[in-house]
Here is the input.
Amino acid sequence: MTRGGLQRQDARGVLEGVRATAATSDDELCRRLADDLDAGFAELVASYGSLVCTVAARATFGNEDAEDLAAEAFLRAYRALRGYDAARIRELRLRPWLVTIALNAARNARRAAIRRPRTDSLAVTGEPVATGRDVAELAEAADAAGELLARLAALPAKQRLAVVLRHVADLPVPEIAAVMACPEGTARSHVARGLAALRAAYGADRTSHAKPAGRGGQEPDR
Amino acid sequence: MNPLPAVPIEDQLAQLAGRPTRGFADRVVARVATVAGPTGPLHVAWTASGICAVEFASRLDAAAFAARVRERFGRPVLPADRPLPGLVAAARTGSARRLAFDLTGLTPFEVAVLEVTLSIPVGEIRPYGWVAEEIGRPRAVRAVGSALGRNPVPVLIPCHRVTRSDGSIGNYGGGPAMKEALLRAERVNLDEVAELAAAGVHYVGSTTTKIVCLPSCRHARQVAARNRRGFGDLREAGSAGYRPCEDCRPGLRRSA
Here is the structure.
Protein backbone atom coordinates (compact mmCIF):
# COMPACT_ATOMS: atom_id res chain seq x y z
CA MET A 1 0.00 0.00 0.00
CA THR A 2 1.23 3.49 -0.77
CA ARG A 3 1.87 5.55 2.29
CA GLY A 4 1.10 8.91 0.77
CA GLY A 5 3.62 11.15 -0.87
CA LEU A 6 6.08 11.20 1.95
CA GLN A 7 8.72 8.74 1.01
CA ARG A 8 11.23 10.92 -0.61
CA GLN A 9 11.38 10.08 -4.20
CA ASP A 10 13.80 11.80 -6.45
CA ALA A 11 11.06 14.12 -7.48
CA ARG A 12 12.51 15.85 -10.49
CA GLY A 13 10.31 15.22 -13.47
CA VAL A 14 7.97 12.84 -11.67
CA LEU A 15 6.19 15.53 -9.74
CA GLU A 16 2.85 14.91 -11.41
CA GLY A 17 3.16 11.24 -10.56
CA VAL A 18 3.79 12.01 -6.92
CA ARG A 19 0.78 14.27 -6.80
CA ALA A 20 -1.44 11.69 -8.41
CA THR A 21 -0.31 9.04 -5.92
CA ALA A 22 -0.91 11.34 -2.99
CA ALA A 23 -4.35 12.26 -4.29
CA THR A 24 -5.54 8.65 -4.59
CA SER A 25 -4.12 7.84 -1.24
CA ASP A 26 -5.91 10.81 0.32
CA ASP A 27 -9.25 9.87 -1.21
CA GLU A 28 -8.79 6.37 0.07
CA LEU A 29 -7.84 7.62 3.53
CA CYS A 30 -10.81 9.96 3.65
CA ARG A 31 -13.11 7.11 2.73
CA ARG A 32 -11.68 4.94 5.50
CA LEU A 33 -11.95 7.78 8.01
CA ALA A 34 -15.58 8.23 7.04
CA ASP A 35 -16.23 4.47 7.34
CA ASP A 36 -14.41 3.81 10.60
CA LEU A 37 -12.95 6.90 12.20
CA ASP A 38 -10.63 5.16 14.65
CA ALA A 39 -9.14 2.56 12.30
CA GLY A 40 -8.89 5.18 9.56
CA PHE A 41 -7.18 7.54 11.94
CA ALA A 42 -4.47 5.01 12.75
CA GLU A 43 -3.79 4.84 9.01
CA LEU A 44 -3.76 8.60 8.83
CA VAL A 45 -1.09 8.69 11.56
CA ALA A 46 0.92 6.02 9.74
CA SER A 47 0.66 7.91 6.44
CA TYR A 48 1.19 11.44 7.68
CA GLY A 49 3.19 11.00 10.88
CA SER A 50 6.32 12.07 9.00
CA LEU A 51 4.62 15.10 7.48
CA VAL A 52 3.21 16.33 10.78
CA CYS A 53 6.46 15.61 12.66
CA THR A 54 8.40 17.50 9.99
CA VAL A 55 6.13 20.50 10.18
CA ALA A 56 6.19 20.34 13.98
CA ALA A 57 9.98 20.11 14.12
CA ARG A 58 10.32 23.14 11.84
CA ALA A 59 7.66 25.08 13.73
CA THR A 60 8.69 24.46 17.33
CA PHE A 61 11.84 26.56 17.27
CA GLY A 62 13.44 24.29 19.81
CA ASN A 63 11.03 25.17 22.58
CA GLU A 64 8.92 22.04 22.54
CA ASP A 65 9.38 18.41 21.79
CA ALA A 66 8.38 18.17 18.14
CA GLU A 67 6.78 14.75 18.60
CA ASP A 68 4.71 15.99 21.53
CA LEU A 69 3.50 18.77 19.31
CA ALA A 70 2.81 16.38 16.43
CA ALA A 71 0.84 14.08 18.73
CA GLU A 72 -1.10 17.08 20.00
CA ALA A 73 -1.86 18.11 16.42
CA PHE A 74 -3.17 14.65 15.58
CA LEU A 75 -5.35 14.64 18.69
CA ARG A 76 -6.81 18.00 17.66
CA ALA A 77 -7.45 16.58 14.22
CA TYR A 78 -9.19 13.55 15.69
CA ARG A 79 -11.37 15.64 17.97
CA ALA A 80 -12.34 17.80 15.01
CA LEU A 81 -13.14 14.77 12.87
CA ARG A 82 -15.45 13.42 15.56
CA GLY A 83 -17.64 16.43 14.97
CA TYR A 84 -17.67 16.11 11.17
CA ASP A 85 -20.23 14.11 9.24
CA ALA A 86 -19.11 11.51 6.70
CA ALA A 87 -19.68 13.81 3.72
CA ARG A 88 -17.47 16.50 5.17
CA ILE A 89 -14.73 13.98 6.00
CA ARG A 90 -14.77 12.61 2.44
CA GLU A 91 -14.17 16.08 1.05
CA LEU A 92 -11.23 16.97 3.29
CA ARG A 93 -7.90 17.84 1.75
CA LEU A 94 -6.03 15.91 4.37
CA ARG A 95 -2.51 17.22 4.01
CA PRO A 96 -3.17 20.97 4.05
CA TRP A 97 -5.76 20.38 6.77
CA LEU A 98 -3.28 18.50 8.97
CA VAL A 99 -0.48 20.98 8.31
CA THR A 100 -2.75 23.87 9.25
CA ILE A 101 -3.69 22.14 12.50
CA ALA A 102 -0.02 21.44 13.27
CA LEU A 103 0.91 25.08 12.64
CA ASN A 104 -1.93 26.27 14.88
CA ALA A 105 -0.86 23.85 17.60
CA ALA A 106 2.70 25.15 17.31
CA ARG A 107 1.49 28.72 17.57
CA ASN A 108 -0.55 27.93 20.68
CA ALA A 109 2.38 26.07 22.24
CA ARG A 110 4.60 29.05 21.55
CA ARG A 111 2.12 31.41 23.17
CA ALA A 112 1.81 29.14 26.18
CA ALA A 113 5.61 28.96 26.42
CA ILE A 114 5.81 32.74 26.44
CA ARG A 115 3.20 32.99 29.18
CA ARG A 116 4.89 30.29 31.22
CA PRO A 117 8.58 30.13 30.34
CA ARG A 118 10.23 26.77 30.73
CA THR A 119 12.64 26.51 33.58
CA ASP A 120 13.90 23.05 32.78
CA SER A 121 16.43 22.43 30.06
CA LEU A 122 15.20 22.64 26.51
CA ALA A 123 14.03 19.41 25.00
CA VAL A 124 16.52 19.44 22.19
CA THR A 125 16.84 16.03 20.70
CA GLY A 126 20.29 16.34 19.22
CA GLU A 127 18.83 17.51 15.97
CA PRO A 128 19.70 21.07 15.12
CA VAL A 129 16.56 23.14 15.09
CA ALA A 130 16.12 26.59 13.66
CA THR A 131 15.79 29.29 16.25
CA GLY A 132 15.39 32.87 15.23
CA ARG A 133 17.34 33.98 18.25
CA ASP A 134 20.71 32.31 17.88
CA VAL A 135 21.14 32.39 14.15
CA ALA A 136 24.74 33.44 14.52
CA GLU A 137 25.52 30.64 16.88
CA LEU A 138 23.85 28.07 14.66
CA ALA A 139 25.51 29.47 11.57
CA GLU A 140 28.85 28.84 13.15
CA ALA A 141 28.04 25.18 13.52
CA ALA A 142 30.18 23.23 11.14
CA ASP A 143 27.23 21.00 10.45
CA ALA A 144 25.66 21.83 7.10
CA ALA A 145 22.14 21.03 8.32
CA GLY A 146 22.64 23.43 11.20
CA GLU A 147 23.75 26.12 8.83
CA LEU A 148 20.84 25.51 6.52
CA LEU A 149 18.43 25.69 9.46
CA ALA A 150 19.97 28.96 10.51
CA ARG A 151 19.57 30.30 6.98
CA LEU A 152 15.98 29.15 6.95
CA ALA A 153 15.34 30.82 10.29
CA ALA A 154 16.64 34.07 8.89
CA LEU A 155 14.06 34.10 6.07
CA PRO A 156 10.88 36.17 6.34
CA ALA A 157 8.17 34.02 7.96
CA LYS A 158 6.09 33.47 4.82
CA GLN A 159 9.05 32.51 2.68
CA ARG A 160 10.33 30.20 5.38
CA LEU A 161 6.96 28.48 5.72
CA ALA A 162 6.57 28.16 1.96
CA VAL A 163 10.07 26.74 1.50
CA VAL A 164 9.63 24.29 4.38
CA LEU A 165 6.27 23.11 3.09
CA ARG A 166 7.46 22.78 -0.51
CA HIS A 167 10.96 21.39 -0.11
CA VAL A 168 11.13 19.86 3.38
CA ALA A 169 7.56 18.57 3.74
CA ASP A 170 7.21 17.95 -0.04
CA LEU A 171 3.76 19.52 -0.32
CA PRO A 172 2.55 20.49 -3.80
CA VAL A 173 2.01 24.20 -4.42
CA PRO A 174 -1.83 24.09 -4.43
CA GLU A 175 -1.74 22.58 -0.94
CA ILE A 176 0.78 25.18 0.23
CA ALA A 177 -1.58 27.85 -1.07
CA ALA A 178 -4.39 26.24 0.91
CA VAL A 179 -2.30 26.25 4.10
CA MET A 180 -1.18 29.83 3.59
CA ALA A 181 -4.63 30.94 2.46
CA CYS A 182 -3.22 32.68 -0.61
CA PRO A 183 -3.38 32.24 -4.38
CA GLU A 184 -1.15 29.53 -5.83
CA GLY A 185 0.93 32.10 -7.67
CA THR A 186 1.66 33.86 -4.41
CA ALA A 187 2.62 30.59 -2.73
CA ARG A 188 4.89 29.72 -5.65
CA SER A 189 6.48 33.13 -5.42
CA HIS A 190 7.11 32.76 -1.67
CA VAL A 191 8.85 29.45 -2.37
CA ALA A 192 10.93 30.92 -5.17
CA ARG A 193 11.94 34.01 -3.23
CA GLY A 194 12.81 31.94 -0.21
CA LEU A 195 14.96 29.57 -2.26
CA ALA A 196 16.64 32.48 -3.99
CA ALA A 197 17.41 34.08 -0.65
CA LEU A 198 18.88 30.81 0.62
CA ARG A 199 21.08 30.54 -2.44
CA ALA A 200 22.12 34.15 -2.11
CA ALA A 201 23.03 33.51 1.49
CA TYR A 202 25.32 30.72 0.39
CA GLY A 203 27.00 33.09 -2.02
CA ALA A 204 24.93 32.44 -5.07
CA ASP A 205 26.52 31.52 -8.27
CA ARG A 206 24.78 31.32 -11.58
CA THR A 207 25.04 27.57 -11.89
CA SER A 208 22.77 27.00 -8.93
CA HIS A 209 19.93 28.56 -10.92
CA ALA A 210 20.28 26.02 -13.67
CA LYS A 211 17.49 23.73 -12.72
CA PRO A 212 14.96 21.74 -14.66
CA ALA A 213 12.08 23.72 -16.05
CA GLY A 214 8.72 23.31 -14.38
CA ARG A 215 10.14 23.04 -10.86
CA GLY A 216 9.96 25.86 -8.37
CA GLY A 217 8.08 28.19 -10.72
CA GLN A 218 9.39 31.48 -11.98
CA GLU A 219 12.57 32.67 -10.37
CA PRO A 220 12.55 36.23 -9.10
CA ASP A 221 15.50 38.33 -10.16
CA ARG A 222 17.95 38.78 -7.38
CA MET B 1 32.35 33.50 2.31
CA ASN B 2 30.47 30.25 2.27
CA PRO B 3 31.21 28.03 -0.68
CA LEU B 4 28.19 26.95 -2.65
CA PRO B 5 27.14 23.62 -1.24
CA ALA B 6 27.86 20.77 -3.58
CA VAL B 7 24.39 19.39 -3.06
CA PRO B 8 21.52 21.45 -4.56
CA ILE B 9 19.66 23.44 -1.95
CA GLU B 10 16.39 21.61 -2.67
CA ASP B 11 18.01 18.28 -1.87
CA GLN B 12 19.57 19.67 1.29
CA LEU B 13 16.17 20.94 2.37
CA ALA B 14 14.66 17.53 1.68
CA GLN B 15 17.19 16.08 4.13
CA LEU B 16 15.57 18.11 6.91
CA ALA B 17 12.35 16.09 6.73
CA GLY B 18 11.56 14.46 10.05
CA ARG B 19 10.45 10.93 10.67
CA PRO B 20 8.59 9.96 13.82
CA THR B 21 10.29 7.58 16.20
CA ARG B 22 8.93 4.09 16.65
CA GLY B 23 5.79 4.02 18.70
CA PHE B 24 4.74 7.51 17.69
CA ALA B 25 1.26 6.25 16.83
CA ASP B 26 0.78 5.20 20.47
CA ARG B 27 1.14 8.81 21.51
CA VAL B 28 -2.09 9.42 19.62
CA VAL B 29 -4.04 6.16 19.69
CA ALA B 30 -5.21 4.45 22.90
CA ARG B 31 -5.06 0.64 22.86
CA VAL B 32 -7.45 -1.78 24.46
CA ALA B 33 -7.17 -5.46 25.33
CA THR B 34 -9.14 -7.88 27.41
CA VAL B 35 -7.01 -9.86 29.86
CA ALA B 36 -7.67 -12.41 32.59
CA GLY B 37 -8.16 -10.77 35.98
CA PRO B 38 -8.29 -12.35 39.43
CA THR B 39 -12.06 -12.91 39.29
CA GLY B 40 -12.75 -12.80 35.55
CA PRO B 41 -11.81 -10.95 32.36
CA LEU B 42 -10.91 -7.28 32.49
CA HIS B 43 -10.94 -4.68 29.74
CA VAL B 44 -7.82 -2.55 29.94
CA ALA B 45 -6.96 0.61 27.95
CA TRP B 46 -3.63 2.39 27.80
CA THR B 47 -1.87 5.30 26.13
CA ALA B 48 1.85 5.84 25.66
CA SER B 49 1.90 7.26 29.21
CA GLY B 50 0.38 4.21 30.85
CA ILE B 51 -2.82 2.40 31.73
CA CYS B 52 -5.76 4.78 31.68
CA ALA B 53 -8.89 2.65 32.12
CA VAL B 54 -9.96 -0.72 33.48
CA GLU B 55 -13.41 -2.29 33.61
CA PHE B 56 -14.84 -5.68 34.51
CA ALA B 57 -15.85 -7.46 31.32
CA SER B 58 -18.89 -8.75 33.22
CA ARG B 59 -20.15 -5.18 33.57
CA LEU B 60 -19.45 -3.73 30.12
CA ASP B 61 -18.83 -5.25 26.70
CA ALA B 62 -15.65 -4.45 24.78
CA ALA B 63 -17.32 -2.04 22.33
CA ALA B 64 -18.99 -0.04 25.11
CA PHE B 65 -15.69 0.09 26.99
CA ALA B 66 -13.86 1.36 23.89
CA ALA B 67 -16.58 3.97 23.39
CA ARG B 68 -16.23 5.13 26.97
CA VAL B 69 -12.44 5.46 26.67
CA ARG B 70 -12.83 7.34 23.37
CA GLU B 71 -15.30 9.71 24.97
CA ARG B 72 -13.22 10.36 28.06
CA PHE B 73 -9.82 10.80 26.43
CA GLY B 74 -10.81 12.14 23.01
CA ARG B 75 -8.49 9.66 21.30
CA PRO B 76 -8.94 6.94 18.73
CA VAL B 77 -9.26 3.58 20.49
CA LEU B 78 -8.07 0.44 18.77
CA PRO B 79 -7.48 -3.16 19.81
CA ALA B 80 -3.87 -3.80 20.79
CA ASP B 81 -1.78 -6.17 18.69
CA ARG B 82 -0.42 -7.54 21.94
CA PRO B 83 -1.03 -6.59 25.57
CA LEU B 84 1.13 -3.98 27.22
CA PRO B 85 4.27 -5.68 28.62
CA GLY B 86 3.69 -6.67 32.22
CA LEU B 87 -0.08 -6.27 31.99
CA VAL B 88 -1.01 -9.95 31.82
CA ALA B 89 1.11 -10.80 34.87
CA ALA B 90 -0.14 -7.75 36.77
CA ALA B 91 -3.79 -8.58 36.09
CA ARG B 92 -3.27 -12.19 37.16
CA THR B 93 -1.29 -11.50 40.33
CA GLY B 94 -2.99 -8.25 41.30
CA SER B 95 0.36 -6.50 41.64
CA ALA B 96 0.73 -3.64 39.18
CA ARG B 97 3.31 -1.60 41.05
CA ARG B 98 5.73 -1.71 38.15
CA LEU B 99 3.23 -0.56 35.53
CA ALA B 100 2.81 3.05 34.51
CA PHE B 101 -0.60 4.70 34.78
CA ASP B 102 -2.01 7.59 32.82
CA LEU B 103 -4.16 9.45 35.34
CA THR B 104 -4.78 12.45 33.10
CA GLY B 105 -7.83 14.41 34.14
CA LEU B 106 -7.74 13.46 37.82
CA THR B 107 -7.19 16.00 40.56
CA PRO B 108 -3.85 16.02 42.43
CA PHE B 109 -5.75 14.76 45.48
CA GLU B 110 -7.18 11.82 43.54
CA VAL B 111 -3.77 11.02 42.08
CA ALA B 112 -2.20 11.08 45.57
CA VAL B 113 -4.90 8.71 46.87
CA LEU B 114 -4.38 6.30 43.98
CA GLU B 115 -0.58 6.38 44.28
CA VAL B 116 -0.77 5.39 47.94
CA THR B 117 -3.38 2.75 47.17
CA LEU B 118 -1.09 1.24 44.53
CA SER B 119 1.43 0.54 47.30
CA ILE B 120 -0.94 -1.74 49.26
CA PRO B 121 0.40 -5.29 48.84
CA VAL B 122 -1.60 -8.17 47.43
CA GLY B 123 -3.51 -9.97 50.20
CA GLU B 124 -3.64 -6.99 52.59
CA ILE B 125 -6.20 -4.30 53.32
CA ARG B 126 -6.01 -0.79 54.73
CA PRO B 127 -8.64 1.45 56.27
CA TYR B 128 -9.80 4.62 54.43
CA GLY B 129 -8.27 6.62 57.27
CA TRP B 130 -4.91 5.01 56.65
CA VAL B 131 -4.89 6.31 53.07
CA ALA B 132 -5.90 9.75 54.33
CA GLU B 133 -2.97 9.75 56.74
CA GLU B 134 -0.52 8.49 54.15
CA ILE B 135 -1.30 11.40 51.84
CA GLY B 136 -1.00 13.85 54.71
CA ARG B 137 -4.71 14.66 54.81
CA PRO B 138 -5.80 12.72 57.92
CA ARG B 139 -9.18 14.44 58.11
CA ALA B 140 -10.09 13.79 54.48
CA VAL B 141 -11.37 10.24 55.05
CA ARG B 142 -14.65 10.75 53.20
CA ALA B 143 -12.89 12.46 50.30
CA VAL B 144 -10.56 9.46 50.10
CA GLY B 145 -13.63 7.23 49.78
CA SER B 146 -14.98 9.40 46.95
CA ALA B 147 -11.63 9.46 45.17
CA LEU B 148 -11.39 5.69 45.35
CA GLY B 149 -14.95 5.44 44.06
CA ARG B 150 -13.82 7.32 40.96
CA ASN B 151 -10.74 5.12 40.43
CA PRO B 152 -10.54 4.75 36.62
CA VAL B 153 -8.20 1.76 36.86
CA PRO B 154 -9.73 -0.64 39.43
CA VAL B 155 -8.06 -3.96 40.26
CA LEU B 156 -4.71 -2.73 38.89
CA ILE B 157 -4.75 0.18 41.32
CA PRO B 158 -6.26 -1.91 44.09
CA CYS B 159 -8.93 0.34 45.58
CA HIS B 160 -10.64 -2.90 46.65
CA ARG B 161 -7.91 -3.21 49.28
CA VAL B 162 -9.21 -0.14 51.12
CA THR B 163 -11.95 -1.08 53.57
CA ARG B 164 -13.75 0.33 56.57
CA SER B 165 -11.96 0.29 59.88
CA ASP B 166 -14.99 -1.32 61.56
CA GLY B 167 -14.12 -4.52 59.70
CA SER B 168 -16.86 -4.19 57.08
CA ILE B 169 -15.91 -4.17 53.47
CA GLY B 170 -17.17 -0.75 52.39
CA ASN B 171 -18.36 0.44 49.01
CA TYR B 172 -17.06 -0.51 45.61
CA GLY B 173 -17.68 0.71 42.07
CA GLY B 174 -18.18 -2.88 40.94
CA GLY B 175 -20.43 -3.61 43.91
CA PRO B 176 -19.51 -4.93 47.38
CA ALA B 177 -19.81 -8.55 46.21
CA MET B 178 -17.13 -7.93 43.59
CA LYS B 179 -14.93 -6.29 46.21
CA GLU B 180 -15.28 -9.27 48.53
CA ALA B 181 -14.60 -11.73 45.69
CA LEU B 182 -11.41 -9.86 44.78
CA LEU B 183 -10.22 -9.81 48.39
CA ARG B 184 -11.00 -13.49 48.90
CA ALA B 185 -9.26 -14.35 45.62
CA GLU B 186 -6.08 -12.89 47.05
CA ARG B 187 -6.67 -14.59 50.43
CA VAL B 188 -7.13 -11.58 52.64
CA ASN B 189 -8.05 -12.72 56.17
CA LEU B 190 -11.35 -10.86 55.92
CA ASP B 191 -13.22 -12.94 58.48
CA GLU B 192 -10.47 -12.64 61.04
CA VAL B 193 -10.20 -8.88 60.54
CA ALA B 194 -13.98 -8.54 60.97
CA GLU B 195 -13.97 -10.69 64.13
CA LEU B 196 -11.13 -8.67 65.63
CA ALA B 197 -12.85 -5.40 64.76
CA ALA B 198 -16.07 -6.63 66.36
CA ALA B 199 -14.05 -7.30 69.51
CA GLY B 200 -12.61 -3.76 69.36
CA VAL B 201 -9.18 -4.93 68.12
CA HIS B 202 -7.75 -2.86 65.24
CA TYR B 203 -4.05 -3.61 65.64
CA VAL B 204 -2.14 -6.82 66.26
CA GLY B 205 1.21 -6.83 68.06
CA SER B 206 3.82 -9.50 68.57
CA THR B 207 4.89 -9.97 72.18
CA THR B 208 8.31 -11.17 70.96
CA THR B 209 9.18 -8.41 68.48
CA LYS B 210 7.11 -5.69 70.19
CA ILE B 211 5.97 -4.55 66.72
CA VAL B 212 2.34 -3.62 66.10
CA CYS B 213 0.64 -4.10 62.70
CA LEU B 214 -2.66 -3.75 60.93
CA PRO B 215 -4.44 -7.12 61.26
CA SER B 216 -4.11 -8.03 57.56
CA CYS B 217 -0.38 -7.25 57.41
CA ARG B 218 1.64 -10.28 56.33
CA HIS B 219 3.84 -9.84 59.41
CA ALA B 220 0.85 -9.83 61.76
CA ARG B 221 -0.47 -13.00 60.15
CA GLN B 222 2.82 -14.77 60.84
CA VAL B 223 2.71 -14.10 64.56
CA ALA B 224 1.95 -17.32 66.46
CA ALA B 225 -1.35 -17.22 68.32
CA ARG B 226 0.34 -17.43 71.72
CA ASN B 227 2.49 -14.35 70.92
CA ARG B 228 -0.32 -12.16 69.59
CA ARG B 229 -1.63 -9.20 71.45
CA GLY B 230 -4.51 -7.09 70.18
CA PHE B 231 -4.89 -3.35 70.64
CA GLY B 232 -7.84 -1.03 70.16
CA ASP B 233 -5.65 1.93 69.31
CA LEU B 234 -2.04 2.79 68.75
CA ARG B 235 -1.63 4.85 71.90
CA GLU B 236 -2.41 1.79 73.92
CA ALA B 237 0.18 -0.16 71.91
CA GLY B 238 2.71 2.63 72.28
CA SER B 239 2.39 2.80 76.03
CA ALA B 240 2.85 -0.99 76.14
CA GLY B 241 6.23 -0.51 74.44
CA TYR B 242 5.26 -1.49 70.88
CA ARG B 243 6.48 0.31 67.78
CA PRO B 244 4.53 0.47 64.49
CA CYS B 245 5.39 -1.93 61.66
CA GLU B 246 7.42 -0.26 58.92
CA ASP B 247 5.65 -2.19 56.18
CA CYS B 248 1.96 -1.68 56.96
CA ARG B 249 2.65 1.63 58.76
CA PRO B 250 -0.35 1.75 61.08
CA GLY B 251 -0.95 5.42 61.78
CA LEU B 252 -2.91 7.09 64.49
CA ARG B 253 -6.49 6.03 64.05
CA ARG B 254 -9.11 8.73 63.97
CA SER B 255 -11.77 8.42 66.56
CA ALA B 256 -14.52 6.60 64.72
Observations:
- Residues 37-59 of chain A form the longest helix (23 residues).
- Residues 1-7+15-117 of chain A form a domain with the Rna Polymerase Sigma Factor; Chain: A fold (CATH 1.10.1740.10).
- Residues 1-23, 119-133, 138-142, 204-222 of chain A have pLDDT under 50 and may be disordered.
